[in-house]
Amino acid sequence: MSWAPPAALVGCGWVLTAGAAAWAWLASTPTDRVFVAALALALLAASAFGTLCRPRLHADGTGITVRALTGRRHYSWDEITIRVRETRRLGLTGTSLELDANPDLTILTRLDLGEDPYDAADALHALRR
């Protein structure tokens, strides 16, 4: 089983990156160029991360593999604890999947998984058995 950011979202990020780069190129004032170029770089970083780190989470009979820019980390089922945590900030509730393998803690959101963290946790617990 694998989880990754939605392909449509990553594709939209690349389209927005191209649009922001064109806007920065065509901007008439230096201030506009700087701010739009910063936007284009931020979109480029987010889109590249979404492309390069696919799938973000992979699980099989041997354990869980988490992919990041620094590489892949594999954890066996014995060394990992799976939790779903809800946090409230500014009146909004955010849900995240926590993979705790001492000393590493990986936090994945709906954006990372492309699915509700509760559903991913249920699938991981079922696979763990």
UniProtKB/TrEMBL annotation:
<dbReference type="InterPro" id="IPR019692">
    <property type="entry name" value="CFP-6_PH"/>
</dbReference>
<keyword id="KW-0472">Membrane</keyword>
<protein>
    <submittedName>
        <fullName>PH (Pleckstrin Homology) domain-containing protein</fullName>
    </submittedName>
</protein>
<feature type="transmembrane region" description="Helical">
    <location>
        <begin position="34"/>
        <end position="53"/>
    </location>
</feature>
<keyword id="KW-1133">Transmembrane helix</keyword>
<feature type="domain" description="Low molecular weight protein antigen 6 PH">
    <location>
        <begin position="54"/>
        <end position="128"/>
    </location>
</feature>
<dbReference type="Pfam" id="PF10756">
    <property type="entry name" value="bPH_6"/>
</dbReference>
<keyword id="KW-0812">Transmembrane</keyword>
